[in-house]
Amino acid sequence: MAGAITSRVLITGRFMPSARPARAFKPFLYYAALRNGFTPSTELKSTPTTFTFDDGKAQYAPSSNFGGYYAEDPITLAQALALSDNIYAVKTHLAIGMDQLVKTAKRAGITSPLDPIPSLALGSDPVSVLEMARSYSTLANEGAKVEPHLITMVTDSKGNILYNWHSQPKQVLNPKTAFVLSQLMTGIFDKRLDGYTKVTGSGVAGMLTHKMAAKTGSTATDSWMVVYSKSGHIRMDRL
C-alpha cells in the first residue's frame, strides 16, 4: 500500500472493523500540543488524577498507566510520550482545548466521528486501520497527506503500463512540527528516557537496525503498533 509521497505501508492483523486505537492516538494530541505552546521539555505532574469538565458537571478518571506506575513528580512531554503516561495526556488535552485534538486528527486523515471529551486523549473513539494508516503516513511525510491506494500500477503481459498511480500530496500539518513530533516518537525505543517505568518499546529496542518512530496502544481486545522510518516505510500491526 502506498500511503504517502514515498511511503510503503504494511498492514498486518485484522483490517476491519473499526476499533479504539487507545494510546496509539496520542501522537495527534502531542502534535496539537506542540502547535499550542507546548515544547518537548514542558513539564506536568504524573499522579493519579480525577478531572472535572463540562463546567463542573462531569468527572473523568483515566485508566491507570501500564503497571499502575506514576512518576509522582513532573515529567516532560518527551518522556510522557515515550512512557505513554495517561495523566500527562489528559492534562494536555484539557489545557489546549479538547477541540484541538479533534481538528488535528481530522486534518491528518481520521474520518470517523470524534467526540471532544477527556477520554479522546487515550483513543476512546473507534477508527479503522485504514484511517490510522492514512493519518500516520501524514506524520511520516512531514504533514503532507496522500490518500492510500491498494493498487499503484497495472501492466499487461508484455510489461506495458496500463495504469500508474501518482500521489497528489496535500500539506495539511505544519512540516516543522510534524518533524519534531516524529523525532519525539523515536523516544519509545530510547532507554535514556526510562523513568518510573521503562519506555514502551524497550522490549524490541535492541532489535532495531536504524532509527524508527513509533507508538503503541492496547485495549482489552486489541493491541496496536505503528512504526515508521525516515525512508518513508510504515508498518502497522493490529492484533
Strand content: 15-25%
Q: Count the helices. How many? A: 6
CATH class, anyone?
Alpha Beta
The gross shape turns out to be: globular
Topology pattern, helix = H, strand = E: EHEEEEHHHHEEEEHEEE
Sketch the major β-sheet.
Answer: 4 strands, mixed
Number of domains: 1
Mean pLDDT: 89
> How helix-rich are the residues, as a percent range?
25-40%
What would you give as the CATH superfamily?
A: DD-peptidase/beta-lactamase superfamily
CATH topology: Beta-lactamase
Low-confidence stretches: 1-6
Q: Tell me the structural class.
A: alpha+beta
Q: Give the strand line-up of the largest sheet.
A: 1-12-11-10
Radius of gyration, taken over Cα atoms and rounded to an integer in Å: 18 Å
Q: Tally of extended strands?
A: 12
Q: Give the terminus-to-terminus CA distance.
A: 19 Å
| Name of the CATH architecture | 3-Layer(aba) Sandwich
Notes on the protein architecture:
- This protein has one domain: DD-peptidase/beta-lactamase superfamily (Beta-lactamase), CATH 3.40.710.10.
- The protein has helices at residues 26-34, 77-83, 86-96, 98-108, 129-140, 175-185; strands spanning 8-13, 43-45, 51-53, 58-60, 74-76, 144-145, 153-155, 161-164, 170-171, 212-218, 223-229, 233-238.
- The model is unreliable at 1-6 (pLDDT under 50).
- 43% of the residues are buried.
- It contains 6 helices and 12 strands.
- Helix 1 (26-34) packs across helix 3 (86-96) and helix 1 packs across helix 4 (98-108).
- The strands form 5 sheets. It has a 4-stranded mixed β-sheet with strand order 1-12-11-10. Strands 2-5 form a two-stranded antiparallel sheet. Strands 3-4 form a two-stranded antiparallel ribbon.
- It starts with 7 loop residues before the first strand and ends with a strand.
- The protein has 239 residues and is an alpha+beta fold.
